[in-house]
Every structure is written in C-alpha cells, then in structure tokens.
Amino acid sequence: MGFVNKNLQALLEESIAVGAADAIDIHIEVHDGITILNYMNAVPAFAEILLERLYGNIFSSLAHYRIYNGTMGIHTYIACKDEQVLAVLLYRTAGTHVRILNEATQFAAIEIDRFAQHVFRTYPSVNVISLHAVSLEGKTHGFPLQRFNCLEDIVLGLPSSAEEYMAGLGKSTRNYLNRYQNKLKRAFPALCYETYTRHEIQESHIHEILELNRSRMEGKGKLTPWTAIDRQRMLELARICGMVNLITIDGRICAGTINYRVNDNYFLEVIAHAPEYNDYRLGTICCFITICKCIALGGKEYHFLWGQSDYKYRLGGVQHDLEHVSIFRSRRQMLRNANLVLSNLFHCYDRKMRLWVKEMRRRDNAIMKPVESVIHSLDAIKMAWQRHKQHWLGTSSECSDSPKTKLPT
C-alpha cells in the first residue's frame, strides 16, 4: 500500500517551514530508510489530499473529521520512503491511551507496527493503542494485541459501464430489476430519476430521505439513530462531497439515497423509500439506479457499508470484514488494563451472538424470533439512554471520541 507523489519532498519541506513559522511541534525520525513525521496537535494542509489518495475512504477523510469531531487536539503521523507515502494516520491521545481516528480502512500490518513503535517511543505514558473498524493486511509483530470482528463493509467493484455491470449480475437479479423497473414505468408514467451533487443538494432532500427512513424503521418497531445535530452534519458533509439520488412520482420524493464520494469511491449513508411502494421493490431499484449513476461518474467502488441486507449481495456486493484492534505496550500492561481486555471480549462475543441469531433467522428458525426481539428491545433502550444523555449534556455523542462508524453489533 502506498502511492508515489513526485512533489512530496517539496510539500514536506514547505510544511516544515510553515510549521516552524507557526510554532507547530513537528517530530522527525528516520529509521531504516523510512522517514516519520509527527505533527503534534496539528493537521498539515496537504494531509487532506494524501488521505484521499492513499485510502479513498469517507471515514479517513478530513471533511468527515472536521464535521463530526473537529480537528482540535488531533496529531498527524506520516510515514514515507523516498517519494512514496506509506501511511497517514490521524490520532488523539487521552492519558495512557491513543486512538487512531482512521476507520473503515485497510492498512498494511507493518505500518501499524511501525506506528505503534513510534508511539511507544514518543509517549512513555501511553500503554494502549486502539483502532476501530479496520482491515489489517498481514500479521502484526512485536506487541501483544486483541483483535475481533466488529463490522462488515459490503463493497461492489464498479465496471466501466452500466451495461457491463448489469451483464455481470446473476440472471435472476437481471430479470428482477427489469421486471420491477417495467412495472414502475407502467404504473407511474410520471416517475422521474433525479441526481444532485454537492452544493446542488438541498436541506429538503436530506430531510425527506431521513423521514422516509424513519417511517419505515418505525413500521418495523425500530428507532432511527439520527439526532437533529446528525442531520445537520449529514447535510454539511453532503454539500462537500455528497451525491443524492431521488425517485419522484408526480413531484413527490418516494425513494432516495444519500452518498459520499472520496477520490473515485462512493459510500452509501442512507437509503429509504415510502412503504406503500414495497410491491415495486422501490428501495432496491433506487439503489441500482444510484450505482449506475456512480459508474457514469467514473466511480471505482461502491460501499454499501455495514448491515448484511440481502439487496446488497443481490446487487453484487462482496463482504469485507472489519476488526477492532487494541495494541498493548507489553503483556504486563495488558494485565493492568484488564477492564479493557474484558470489554473487548464482551463486544467480541456479543457480535458473534448477534451474527448467529441473524443466521438462524435466515434459516427460518422460529425459536430465534423472540431472541431477536429481545435484542432489538435492548438496542432501543440503549439508544434511548444515549439520547437522554445527549439531551442533558446539550451535545451529540459524536462530540466525543466514540467511533464514527457503528459500535460493535
């Protein structure tokens, strides 16, 4: 992993000069031909483009950090060799703990090892490094750790044309899409597909899609996770790097998706449709149209993100598992952080249990239905408690350093 930037040396030299002028603390190390730059309490301007090119992920983008968490107190770690950037990691420190902020991203395990070595050298008081919802390529060495599956990202590689994409789907899926698209056109001649990007996106677009989602979730006895603050942040991010696709019938929004683009990759934030159009499979049709639009705009990947919904696999998505990782300075420190170790174990087995229940439900195991109802009730209580705390604190939970992807479920 890594990319070559012919102007990297000039960028680094300029950044160091600017850092010196602005009194920014920059630590520089060179080990085995690898140059490491650590910007303390600062994010250099050029880090934004490096993050986009290296990871191409909304959860490793400065736009997302600025809106959901702010950049105050963030440190920037950059590892490079000659003109090749190997890693760009944003992180925060809190006492004995360091948390890497990049999420839903694939890293070479050797780069995480190198970062851990640097952190434990630089911060003698730090004993734990955590990463959430990441994929490590290869094995880590040198430090004891815990790692467990916490989420999945369903990813679709995009071909060069919508025709090629359609041809690559299974025969039953092609027939399914053609049948319901034709059914929609016959029943609703005034049906329209609309696409809006960045500053074209209106607050009403976001509001209508989220209201459709809320209505559908309430019909299933579930709560939607978005607060008023979350809705505003979603609009802000969409106007920076978003794409909204709508299906309207007689001028009314009946289905829509909210997506973000980073580099050539698209990320599905929300999909929703009016329940009265269930017989037309409007949600799946809307997602299919969205994917075709991403292809037309030169997209390379479409990330359905988490949630093992059948439509994601039907439309060609492939599951990529994501892990939560805790790295400890030593086995002694692992024992001294027994509460964290036990918490990780709890989340690990909670995740396994939930996946097992879902699998049993897919097999129409009737015994699992009441178990799943209990889980949904517990989740609803947890969400209500979180909203209660937000109300009394007068802020959103996203202001904390809690993961911006979902907590392990």
Account of the 3D structure:
Residues 389-403 have low confidence and may be disordered. This protein has a 15-stranded mixed sheet that branches. Helix 3 runs antiparallel to helix 8 and helix 12 (338-362) packs across helix 13 (368-393). The chain has 13 helices and 15 strands. It has helices at residues 8-21, 47-55, 62-68, 109-122, 162-168, 171-187, 203-219, 228-241, 282-296, 310-314, 331-336, 338-362, 368-393; strands at residues 3-4, 25-31, 34-40, 75-81, 84-94, 97-100, 105-108, 128-137, 145-157, 191-197, 242-249, 252-262, 265-273, 301-305, 318-328. It has two domains: 3-150 and 322-356, Aminopeptidase, CATH 3.40.630; 159-299, Gcn5-related N-acetyltransferase (GNAT) (Aminopeptidase, 3-Layer(aba) Sandwich). The relative contact order is 0.13. It is of the alpha+beta class and 409 residues long. A hairpin with a 2-residue loop joins strand 4 (75-81) and strand 5. The two termini are 29 Å apart. It holds the Pfam family Acetyltransf_6. Keywords: Acyltransferase, Transferase. It comes from Keguizhuia sedimenti.
